[in-house]
Design brief:
Blueprint lengths: L1 H21 L5 H10 L7 H9 L3 H19 L3 H18 L5 H4 L15 H20 L4 H21 L5 H21 L9
Helix pairs in contact: 1-9, 3-8, 4-5, 4-7, 5-7, 5-9, 7-8, 7-9, 8-9
């Protein structure tokens, strides 16, 4: 239990420090990756479709689905389960709120774009749904947990890669997004007593 809090706080600190570091500078790793990719994928239709799917719509759909599930469980008098799902919904919303830090750090994008860069909103979106899915799985479907973790990691990595390939984010934008979501997720999961997992 204490470890989750320590890890969460440490990851949030890394997220904030990374944001302060990159807001006025472009680290070597960012320029190397950006130069290597160049404009190869800027107009790539497949990458564009993937980034449209793996973006801000994902947490909206997930939040609506979880809210509906909570109501359904309450109607069925499954209050304990509804409480767990409701707390997971709060974790999802808290993690999604990490995108608000764009206006705090005001980091410019690799190319002209109307919004700021750090952290990547698309990566935050997919990562927060993945984190919430892992939490739900830990409570209700433990046997599927390794598969859900692998799927969440793969989709988050895919969303992050698409944003870098399209030239709308630096590598550190997507890395910071994953670090931040994990940190905030751990802290909220601990505060809401979702970790450690306990059976009814």
């Amino acid at each position: 239990m204490k470890k989750a809090g320590i890890w969460g706080a440490a990851l949030v600190a890394v997220f904030l420090l990374l944001g302060l570091w990159v807001r006025d500078s472009v680290p070597w790793i960012d320029t190397q990756i950006s130069d290597a990719i160049g404009t190869t994928y800027v107009n790539d239709r497949t990458v564009q479709v993937l980034t449209d799917i793996l973006g801000p719509i994902v947490p909206i759909v997930a939040a609506v689905a979880l809210a509906g599930l909570v109501v359904l469980m309450w109607i069925q008098d499954r209050n304990w389960e509804a409480g767990v799902v409701l707390r997971c919904l709060v974790v999802l919303l808290a993690c999604r709120g990490l995108s608000l830090f764009k206006d705090v750090f005001k980091r410019l994008r690799p190319r002209l774009y109307p919004e700021f860069a750090y952290p990547s909103g698309h990566t935050v979106s997919v990562a927060c749904v993945g984190f919430t899915a892992v939490l739900l799985c830990a409570w209700f479907a433990r046997r599927a947990l390794p598969w859900v973790i692998a799927l969440a990691a793969a989709l988050t990595a895919g969303a992050a890669a698409c944003r870098v390939m399209l030239g709308v984010h630096w590598l550190t934008d997507v890395i910071g997004a994953v670090i931040g979501v994990t940190g905030v997720g751990l802290i909220f999961a601990l505060v809401l007593r979702l970790v450690p997992v306990r059976r009814a």
